[in-house]
Amino acid sequence: MPIRVLLVDDEGPARRKMRRLLADAPDFEVVGEAVDGDAAIESIERLKPDAVFLDVQMPKHDGLEVAAALAPPLPEIVFVTAHDKFALKAFEVHALDYLLKPYDGERFSKVLERIRERRSTQPHVDLVQRLQTLLSERTARRVLVREKDRAYFVQLNEVDWIEGERNYALLHMQGKTYTVRATLESLLKQLDQNTFIRVNRSAIIRTGAVQELQAWTHGEYKVMMKDGSELMWTRRFLAHPPIEIFE
After folding, report:
1. What is the per-residue DSSP string for 114-161?
2. Is residue 215 packed enough to be buried (19+ CB in 10 Å), middle (13-18) or exposed (0-12)?
3. Is the Cβ–Cβ distance between 118 and 106 less than 8 Å?
4. Hey, which residues does 3 pair with through a beta bridge?
5. pLDDT tens column, 78-132
6. Residues 8, 128 within the same domain
7. Do the domain assignments include residue 137?
8. What pTM, to 2 d.p., does this model score?
9. How many domains does the chain have?
């Protein structure tokens, strides 16, 4: 099975060079290209490539911001740039390699070999699943949101509550609502479980944004949020009495 690759660079000649060098590696398959940060995030979420060659300096979020915005499990990330000043930050976001322009075929081949080696260590499915589980349990501090023709990060510790709407989540914070493409289940895996709690099928609350809890019928609770929202905490999601959670 070929190693699926996504090429991300705002310059056409740079993408064509990578395609040409990858053509000499039959065990690699280019599954797509992206020319800016927004398109890169969308393509990675949609195509789920095994590896991404990611330019650092691009419009609409640079490569470092793209990598930081990705949810596990992550592809192998190879940063491609003409500047070595980003190297330290690149490895802080778990990059596999750092390809400095201009590079030659020999250097590119070494990167491909590193990807092969990393992929060859993954035949043990149980180990891979354990690693992916560990990665998915990392708590996120911020999330990328889109608003018309803009995209930017918001801090999760400023979110009051999150509303699920099919494959989207609505982040309610500071009197505004932001939409992200994610399910409540996927978001909850990245949130601090001591701070965010799911209270019903379509809502997650931040405990610090709760104004009042009111006992309701059938052992349920009405949650009064500081922003004026009223939510129901249903019995299905009451693993513990709320008084223990807020102590």
Report:
1. HHHHHHHT---HHHHHHHHHHHHTSPPSEEEEEETTEEEEEEGGG--E
2. exposed
3. no
4. 28
5. 998 887 665 556 555 567 888 888 899 999 999 999 999 887 765 443 434 443 4
6. yes
7. no
8. 0.51
9. 2
